[in-house]
Amino acid sequence: MAHVIIKGIGSHVPDCILSNADLEHRVDTTNEWIVGRTGIESRRICLDTETTSDLGYEAAQKALKHAHISSCDVDLIIVATVTPDMQFPATACIIQEKLKCTDIPCFDINSACSGFIYAIDIARNFLLNNPMMKNVLVIGTEKMSSIVDWEDRATCVLFGDGAGAVVLSRDTDRDSEAGIIDVLIGADGHCASMLCCPGWGAAIPVNVENVKKREYFIKMEGREVFKEAIKRMCAVVEDILLRNHLTIDDVACVIPHQANMRIIGAITDRLGIPSPKMYVNLQHRGNTSAASIPIAIDEALQQGYIGPGDLVLTVAFGAGMTWGAALIRWK
Ligand code: UT7
After folding, report:
1. What CATH number should be reported for the domain holding residue 293?
2. Distance spanning both ends of the chain, measured CA to CA
3. Residues near ligand 1 with C-beta < 6 Å?
4. Same domain, yes or no, for 309 and 192?
5. Looking at the structure, do residues 239 and 305 belong to the same domain, yes or no?
């Protein structure tokens, strides 16, 4: 059976660091509260002039270089984001223009923090079902700082900006066991209002009243989201391992969505995952939504947490509610 592999990976974060000490000057919070409740110490934030497509473009360039291919070899671009440059056109088209790869299909998906896992599932299906496609560029990119309410201490301390990208390709080595082994995704729209950005869409028109009501910023019922995140991520990990006849002992490295250290700790305990297998970078990245998983995979790779032949399990949870897990045997 043909395999789809991660042929190249790259990530990019803005230069500007926003520390907890900086946030103490903006809202009624403390470094102790933020570190104790979330594990986050600092996050990267875009300048006003930097955009979601700029971040995605930088990450894509690195992924193409790592894959040893040029942008002309890309057959499809999928961007996962909740902070597109514009309502339309798709940020994927804007990145396509920056990469100078013309006439290929490009589209965005919005599955919030689970977006990258959704996108690799879509890309994998394109590659397995369309022999004309050889390389798909999947990018998770977010400028969360553009939708964060900087007056809401409960949410503004959580998020950061950044991008990660992978080149997915069909493996020509038929004997190899490397590649994306399985992806499992799900959603529960019943919980949609728990975590949302109500403005920007057709439901809430742009007018002064709605701007005053701060409808264009993230709203979150933190405690409820917290509980759902643990429940759904544990369940999807158990399901994907079970249906592949694997246990956590077979997994070399777990890359969870980087939202909250206490959520990651609860999953680690409930699933009996040895702590050293759990990769965490949220201390200095914060929650970068759809960019969180590809940034974490790239940084884990660079820091030697992932090696050839390793089985990597990645799991995410986000607004929707959406969730997903992927099992990847590293090439
Ligand atoms: O990526 C998508 C998924 N998103 C998430 O996974 C986020 C999930 N939720 C969380 O991570 C946590 O719920 C938070 C970190 C957002 C909040 O932690 P918590 O332990 O659930 O705190 P809480 O919301 O129950 O608030 C506890 C107290 C409240 O004060 P009172 O009512 O007890 O007096 C808050 O007003 O902490 C207060 N508080 C703060 N205090 C200082 C809330 N935010 C802050 C803050 N600094 N930044």
Report:
1. 3.40.47.10
2. 16
3. 29, 33-34, 37-38, 113, 153-154, 157, 222-223, 225-226, 229, 259-260, 263, 287, 318
4. yes
5. yes
Q: Residue 252 belongs to what domain range?
A: 179-329
Strand, helix or coil at 76?
strand
207 is catalytic: no
Per annotation, catalytic residue among 3, 12, 66, 257: 257
- Tell me how far apart the alpha carbons of residues 42 and 34 are, in angstroms, rounded to a whole number: 10
How far is residue 130 from each of residues 67, 126, 127, measured CA to CA in Å? 21, 6, 6
C-beta separation of 283 from 226 below 8 A:
no
Domain end position, chosen among 148, 171, 194:
171
For residue 331, what pLDDT is reported?
85
Q: How far apart are CA 331 and CA 173, in angstroms?
A: 11
Nearest one of 29, 7, 2 to 18, comparing CA atoms: 29
Transcribe 202-238 into DSSP letters. Answer: SSS---HHHHHTTTTS-EE-HHHHHHHHHHHHHHHHH
Catalytic residue, from 93, 106, 113, 156: name it: 113
DSSP SS3 for 267: helix
User: What gap in Å lies between CA 154 and CA 211, rounded to an integer?
Assistant: 19
Ligand 1: distance of its center to the CA of 222 in Å? 6
Same domain, 298 and 325: yes
This prediction has a pTM of 0.97
Task: Report the C-alpha gap between 282 and 262 in whole angstroms.
Answer: 11
139 and 217 co-located in one domain: no
Whether 287 is catalytic is yes
Tokens of 123: 């890309």
Same domain, 163 and 187: no
Compute, in angstroms, the gap from residue 221 CA to the centroid of ligand 1: 9
225 and 315, same domain (yes or no): yes
Per-residue model confidence as pLDDT tens digits over 189-241: 999 999 999 998 899 988 999 999 999 999 999 999 999 999 999 999 999 99
